[in-house]
Each structure stands twice: as C-alpha cells, then as structure tokens.
Write a structure and sequence with these properties.
The chain is an alpha+beta fold and 237 residues long. The chain folds into 3 domains: 53 residues, Structural Genomics Hypothetical 15.5 Kd Protein In mrcA-pckA Intergenic Region, Chain A; 88 residues, 2-Layer Sandwich (Alpha-Beta Plaits); 79 residues, Alpha-L RNA-binding motif (Alpha-Beta Plaits, 2-Layer Sandwich), CATH 3.30.70. Helices cover 22% and strands 27% of the residues. It has 7 helices and 13 strands. Strands 5, 6, 7, 8, 9, 10, 11, 12 and 13 form a 9-stranded mixed sheet that branches. Strands 2-1-3-4 form a 4-stranded antiparallel sheet, with no helix packed on it. Its EC number is 5.4.99.-. Pfam families: PseudoU_synth_2 (PF00849), S4 (PF01479). GO terms for molecular function: RNA binding; rRNA pseudouridine synthase activity.
C-alpha cells in the first residue's frame, strides 16, 4: 500500500499533511527516513514510525458504544446528530458504521465497525441473532403478555413476529419493567410488539447483541474498543 494511504487510514493526517511530514523526515520505514509519501510499504511487515513513535496498522476497528438518547444510528444525516459524531478523529478515520439501528430515543449497546462481513453475519435475517432489551412499559405487563410474545405477535402492518422471550422484572400500578429478547430486527419492533398487546414503551435500552453484552461501566455517550475476548464472543454464535 502507499505510505500516505496507510497513515491516512489511521488518521495520522491528510495526504497533503503526510506528504509534508515525509518531506521533513518525520516518517521512517524500517529505521530509514521515508521522504516520498507515495512509496509503497507492507504495513503488516515494515516497521513504520512517525516522530519516533511506532505506528501499528490494522484494517478493521470494532467499537462498543453506549448510545445515548437523541442521536440517530447513521454515519451522516442532514438534520440530525449521528452516533458517529461521538467518535474521536483517530477512530472516525476508519469510517466505522453502526451495525443495525437503535431508534433515536433508544439507548444502549451499539456496535460500530468497518468490518462488512461481520456486520452482515450479525444482521442477516437467516442468522436470528438474539438482541436483548430492558424496557419500562406503561401498564401492567401480565403472564398473558408473556405468552403472547412467545407466540406469534402480529404487527400493525400484518407482519408476524418470530417468538420472543419476555421476562417480567417488576410490576407497579401504572408501569412495568421487563426484559425482552427478539431474534429479528424489524423497524421499531419492540415498541410495535407492545403496542400490539395494548401497551406503550416509555423507555428502551439494548443490553445484549448475540453474545456481546453492554459494559455497564460505560456511561451513555461514550465508547471503547472491543476486547479480544468480546470480539471472539461476538463471532461465536
């Protein structure tokens, strides 16, 4: 790969900036100054340094975000602020995208990556990757609702949902706390499933996707890279 492309993909700078860095001798390849930023290198073999600091190349990035309410799950939008706006420049340089969508007012686990193959595996309707949510619902959720979710709930457009797992955590006079696991990802599915049984979702947070769980120590609006163990869990379904 061209040296400027390798460094540009890592967010080191623009092609013009990297060219100037090379001209000034700030970039070395295997200990030798690389004055030509258009020269070719093997980023997996050659030792690259910028200002004396080692640069390790990688192709993919995997980010675990605790999405806050108020942002949309997209890379760009002309009217709304997107989750990508929360990324640091060095992470945004990899051009990661959200794997699936969370509604604007839904919080919780959101994976961002530039690994298209993994995203396809997680989103493919044939894979039935489980997604777990915590919800606060207006009304008293009952065992009848649990049975309905385990059956075949019909949405407002006629779509018949796959069986879902509904667990009642707490029931109060005017609201209930529940956990729900679904195995598909239709538009506003959780909210529409509750509407089908005459209830309204007041708050929704995703805490699981496949075998990956939300890091509860991650405040809303922040993110971190997946650990090697988490990435292995995500791939082992």
């Amino acid at each position: 790969m061209r040296l400027d492309k390798v460094l540009g993909n890592l967010g080191i700078g623009s092609r013009k900036e990297i060219k100037e860095m090379a001209r000034r001798g700030r970039i070395t390849v295997n200990g030798n100054a690389a004055f030509d930023s258009a020269s070719h290198v093997n980023p997996y073999v050659d030792v690259l340094e910028v200002d004396g600091e080692r640069v390790v190349y990688r192709q993919y990035i995997y980010l675990l975000m605790n999405k806050p309410a108020g942002l949309i799950s997209a890379t760009e939008d002309s009217r709304e602020q997107t989750v990508v706006s929360l990324l640091e420049p060095e992470d945004e340089a990899f051009h990661p995208f959200p794997v699936g969508r969370l509604d604007k007012d839904t919080e919780g686990l959101l994976l961002l990556t530039n690994d298209g193959q993994l995203a396809h595996e997680l989103l493919s309707p044939r894979k039935h990757v489980p997604k777990g949510y915590y919800a606060r619902v207006a009304g008293r959720v009952s065992e009848a609702d649990v049975r309905a979710f385990a059956g075949r709930i019909q949405l407002d457009d006629g779509y018949i949902c796959m069986p879902a797992e509904l667990v009642i955590l707490n029931v109060e006079e005017v609201s209930s706390e529940v956990e729900i696991t679904i195995y598909e990802g239709k538009f506003h599915q959780v909210k529409r499933m509750f509407e089908a049984v005459g209830k309204t979702v007041l708050y929704l947070r995703r805490f699981r996707m496949g075998n990956l769980e939300l890091d509860e120590d991650l405040p809303p609006g922040t993110y971190r890279e997946l650990t090697i163990e988490e990435l292995s869990l995500l791939r082992s379904r």
